Amino acid sequence: MSVIKAFLFDLDGVIVDTAIYHYRAWKRLANELGFDISEAFNERLKGVSRMESLDLILEHGGLTLPEETRTELAAKKNDWYLELVSRMTPDDILPGVPQFFSQVRKAGLLAALGSVSKNAPLIIERIGMQDAFDAIIDGNKITRGKPDPEVFLKGADELEVSPAECVVFEDAVAGVEAGKRGGMFVVGIGSPDVLTQADMVAPSLQELTVEQVLQKAQ
């Protein structure tokens, strides 16, 4: 086994929970188009890129729209979403995250963000965690969304470590698959019934210590 040198974190559902803001913005868009989406349907959009999410929603509403209209709708949803996340503060950081990141630093590990969201830098700034990461990979730096491993492989690359020296923290099925496809040890944040591909699962970072993760991963 390789010695673990770096932890790579998804943003949404691991560090903050912006899923409710995504849901409100997508729901508003669906309502404007004449139909509705449920919270259960919204689960399918987690870890999926903006345009792919829009396509799933349009399919759900039985709509086929030209490329230009789809681009406009995606931009409109993003504007509504940004209105909501721009009000975020450090209070929106999920319980246990600051303590876990403190352990990461004490253990001498590198940390990277691996998010498909193009808004990740804005959120990290709003919650005051810019200094917590040695590298930030977001939707602006990648061409393929999860479950493609590109976002995590780029993270490893920027940190100058091999995939085998990395641990990924993910709450979405697509993200867990991306980490595994990238050849990394994956910690699922959520339910073991859902994140079946993960190497280990915890309800949140609050229920984990860096030592527990390293014992399992190396």
From TrEMBL:
Binding site for substrate: 10-12, 26, 45-50, 53, 77, 115-119, 146
Cofactor notes: Binds 2 magnesium ions per subunit.
Reactions it catalyzes: beta-D-glucose 1-phosphate = beta-D-glucose 6-phosphate
Enzyme class: isomerase
Chain sites annotated for binding Mg(2+): 10, 12, 170-171
Tree of life domain: Bacteria
Any one GO BP annotation for this protein: carbohydrate metabolic process
Entry EC number(s): 5.4.2.6
UniProt entry tagged with the keyword Metal-binding: yes
Cofactor(s) needed: Mg(2+)
InterPro entries: B-phosphoglucomutase_hydrolase (IPR010976), Beta-PGM (IPR010972), Beta-PGM-like (IPR051600), HAD-like_sf (IPR036412), HAD-SF_hydro_IA (IPR006439), HAD_sf (IPR023214), PGP-like_dom2 (IPR023198)
Coiled coil: none
Keyword tags: Carbohydrate metabolism, Isomerase, Magnesium, Metal-binding, Phosphoprotein
Active site residues according to the UniProt entry: 10, 12
Site location (Important for catalytic activity and assists the phosphoryl transfer reaction to Asp8 by balancing charge and orienting the reacting groups): 115, 146
UniProt-recorded Gene Ontology molecular function terms: beta-phosphoglucomutase activity; magnesium ion binding
Family: Belongs to the HAD-like hydrolase superfamily. CbbY/CbbZ/Gph/YieH family.
Protein name in UniProt: Beta-phosphoglucomutase
Organism for this UniProt entry: Fibrisoma montanum
Gene: pgmB
